[in-house]
Amino acid sequence: MTSIVYVLNGPNLNLLGQREPEVYGHETLADVETACRKAAEHLGLEIRFHQSNAEHQLVDWIQAARGEAAAIVINPAAFTHTSVAILDALNAFDGAVVEVHISNVHKREAFRHHSYVSGRADAVIAGCGTQGYLLALQRVATLIG
Ligand code: DQA
Questions:
Q1: Catalytic residue list
Q2: Would you say the pTM of this structure is higher than 0.90?
Q3: Atom number in ligand 1 closest to CA 11
Q4: CA of 76 to the centre of ligand 1 (A)
């Protein structure tokens, strides 16, 4: 049976490729989705790829993953640093969780150094560019074996 993995993206990631390309690169979120689908097929995973600027929508998708998905790969974007609601939702999810940041948040402003999500994540990938999503899917495949 194919394992389902939710790949969730937080606020402003819809602007990937246009937004601060010196920080986030030139690839669009559609490019990332295409690369994730290709990697997932190779790894025997089925992905549900979503982006929202709304915290409640991300919480709803994390809740939807309960009982359906084996893992969640999440770039919570700015909500990383603010959202107890996303942490609580992830704590109610039983599968593997991998947190992804395109940029190296630890090399940036101090307010980006703390992540609520890292307290739940099984792995954290930061500073690998959009390749971080593919590394996350590889890690998920290992974790859910
Ligand atoms: C980000 C880092 C966050 O600090 C920022 O708010 C983002 C993107 C990243 O992918 O590097 O929007 O999660």
A1: 24, 101
A2: yes
A3: 12
A4: 7
Q: Give, for all 145 residues of the chain, the pLDDT tens digit.
A: 579 999 999 999 999 999 999 999 999 999 999 999 999 999 999 999 999 999 999 999 999 999 999 999 999 999 999 999 999 999 999 999 999 999 999 999 999 999 999 999 999 999 999 999 999 999 999 999 8
115 lines ligand 1 (CB under 6 A): no
Half-sphere exposure (CA, 13 Å, Cβ side) for 74? 31
Nearest Cα residue to atom 9 of ligand 1: 101
Does residue 74 sit in helix, strand or coil?
strand
| CATH, residue 128 | 3.40.50.9100
Q: Provide the β-strand partners of residue 4.
A: 46
Domain count, the chain: 1
For the chain, the distance separating the N- and C-terminal CA atoms, rounded to the nearest angstrom, is 12
